[in-house]
């Protein structure tokens, strides 16, 4: 591990002394008001992502909308109406501002009583006042939120995160808590019996991040504790909405265990639900992803040898209170005590393709199989006709092994648990997948890299500090839902409805750089659009065909394909999980922006949730760094900011207002300090001793590294955070532009205190093909649209123009040939950018020629279609194509930007 002796000489470059700048609701004050007249903005349409009004919401809806520079003041209020003119209460808060102080992004929330409508109109104005209003009350050690329908009390300490959930005077649930368990040995090695321990989440802090009138957000932080041990830190965000009986929970935990002795056997959220009334009036609901519902009672009165009567049976099936037993057939009434009471239920989804439902009468007795299926909806319910709790998890089968459990429903209190890691599964095993194979020295590790593409180093393949975020839903219902209503709630849990502005509006707002909505106006453009759709569809469908699911894996895709095995190279070192290599995150988000397609959004969303948590360290010495692609997401020894890249996260944050993603973006504003911790070039320069960096001369690249850091500063600046983010962004960009050859200048060092690259007078050149394929082109496009920096722009445009230029042009302007550069197709978008800025038709034509030639990508004559491969040549029928994640990502980005910048030259 690195031994850093100088890193204590510097405080955090941004965080030290800075004001608290975290979620969007409590960001620092907006920039000063605009100095030019505002242009205003007409009402815009926002529609449901799935194009039709949902039957149920996941408590409420939160979404983001961009606005053009100079249009609206930084504190603009908004009104929302249906297409028919019905006013809808809406809560608005800014999440980003333009440099002139006008609002750039707003987030909006509507509550549980939003009218049924396929579309809404959002316009500057005063929001309507609703029938219900969120109220938040803070007292020492207790925060209570009232939605107008339910009241939820959060504890400020102890292990009861949620003290109670009330509906009127009735407690629907109480003692909401986190549970976890571990054992000290794996299940798979055939060793001696394991020792088990159970842990309960303990609250350290409760914060009110947002307090209405439509939406309240309560943030809870703490750790799991047992005896003297505390571990598995967590961050919980509970969102509650006016007029709703739903509670949305975004649950994040961080792994800080020892992978050789800590094997997690369970991780869940548990509530106690009071059970009232007779056993035959206590109901269970569990759902299938196809919309089916298992409806049962703790004591069933259907299917008996004697019939209690049609009305009685139908009431139990519907979940209504049964008539007085004196009105039943007395041959049943007199024998009710002989009917078993099934108080415990379990739905376990241990793989992506199979779940089992079992039940038992109680502890100490066997489980019997009730039913099973392929994929569960992820929602359960226990309660009575007078109320109960629905509880569930989004991406339930995708994030297996999961479980919904109900125990004690035959007693005074039932307990419901959403297991994010089911105790019925094998214990979580996070050990490294090989023993090092003798790679003890840098020369051996570099030699192994030549065959498996894995950059191995002992001690570096650790999961310590990675995290996982999961979305859960709870409903405090007034009565047992019938099957149809339960299916609606299950659908909202699995795919929470979302409102979105159109691709046309988002493009006109001028956000996210160079892109434009889908354009099929000419045959040539239609051909490019067909290809973009083909590669997106292929990778999206590979997720299902290859079953890229599971707790740690869902959201990522594989890197490269093995045609001989008809298999992605899941077991070949650096060719396995992609871990954001060459920016698939960017590609997927731009595809959504252009199409507005719901499937595209959820594909990109799953990747952002995965790569921002699993592929990035949030604790420990590598906090702020991500891990290069590999067989395990944390396996490779290359820990890099190009993977923890803020440029990949900001789309999801601005489009949804998601506070957890906002946390991650804020974490990264000091990611330049990671160069005090780890020497990224240690194997190249042969450094084997303690790493003792000079903070005034750090090794940090001006391209791959700087682009990730610049994206974090850009986002912090836009969000109204610490003003030093803007200062450091400008200082660093100016210092690069001041170098003789700018972004192409070889070597050089970075001064952490000043955020400047140290000056050089001698022209040199060192340009790598990866330099601009981790967000540099995209972040520079956005940055230069925000500032007036002609020297910076000129140097950047020169870099873009020269990358694919003839070497004589490179030599003439920089003194050196840039070498035989790779990824020329990817850099066609750099040429297009230069063509656009210089208004150079020849460059525009050259950009399209570079895209069509397809160097290190997909040439015009590439086979764009997939082929079906059937058993016995494969395990099951699959589609196969000559696509890789690297090439698809870079082709997608290049084609999108060429269409936007030089489309007229196609």
From TrEMBL:
Signal peptide: 1-29
PcRGLX/YetA-like N-terminal RIFT barrel domain sequence ranges: 43-124
Matches recorded under InterPro entries: PcRGLX/YetA-like (IPR045793), PcRGLX/YetA_2nd (IPR048330), PcRGLX/YetA_3rd (IPR048331), PcRGLX_1st (IPR048329), TAT_signal (IPR006311)
Biased composition (Basic and acidic residues): 182-202
Protein species of origin: Myceligenerans pegani
UniProt domain PcRGLX/YetA-like C-terminal alpha/alpha toroid: residue ranges: 496-905
PROSITE patterns: TAT (PS51318)
Disordered as annotated region, ranges: 176-202
This protein's name: Tat pathway signal sequence domain protein
Record-annotated PcRGLX/YetA-like central beta-sandwich domain positions: 134-490
Keywords: Signal
